[in-house]
Amino acid sequence: TRVRKAGYDGVELALPLHDARRTAHIVDTLQEFGLKLIGQHWETTDPDIDNHIGRYRKRIEWQAAANPLFVNSQTGLDWFPFEANQRIIDAARAVSEKTGVRIVHETHRGKLTFCAAQTRRFLEANPEMRLAADFSHWCNVSESLLADQHESVSSAIARADHIHARVGHPEGPQISDPRAPEWQEALHAHLAWWDSIVETRRGDGTGLLTITAEFGPPTYMPTLPYTRQPVSDQWEINVHMMNLLKARYAQP
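Given the sequence above, the corresponding structure tokens read:
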């Protein structure tokens, strides 16, 4: 009820693996409220590549069975060799072909897309690969606002079908509040990237673009020492971002 009243069009979440009753309840509730579903995968961390792929496929197939708009996948591990991570991309492609559900790979710390340059390597090796753009992670990993990585960022923008609208900065993956004056440089760097993604998707005529307002809870959200109280209101910030982006990208 709260999500619907706030004006969101849907939710992005990971459905509980092998819990058919809870999964059906979630899907039915979303349908009742007229909310769309984006499936989310983030859980697979097995260090053995064969076990990793087996568990990854099970989780992706479980998400796909709910018939989401698509599945957003945090794929692979940053320390796996290129060839091992490529096997996971191949597994995602196979699941997508089997289920008919699109899979996009999120740019994320700790995953095969952990930095701009490495992601570019995978994009060049996989012409059909699509991304969920969360450049906040790349700012953190590179300790920059990516000003010196234009070609790699541009290659990601060209392949992005989904945006995670969180704002990062050189020393962390999430600023405390995008409305605060001290974070305007970081905010406008992200807005410029998102503008380019929107323009690209509108230009190719596919209409395939979604955005999740994704400011996270503590400890993504900075906290006060000792009390661990969040310094800002997560719900309020995400609603602000949703409204800002809906107004910014409203069709003329």
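DSSP finds nine helices and seven strands in the chain. Try to locate this feature in the token string yourself.
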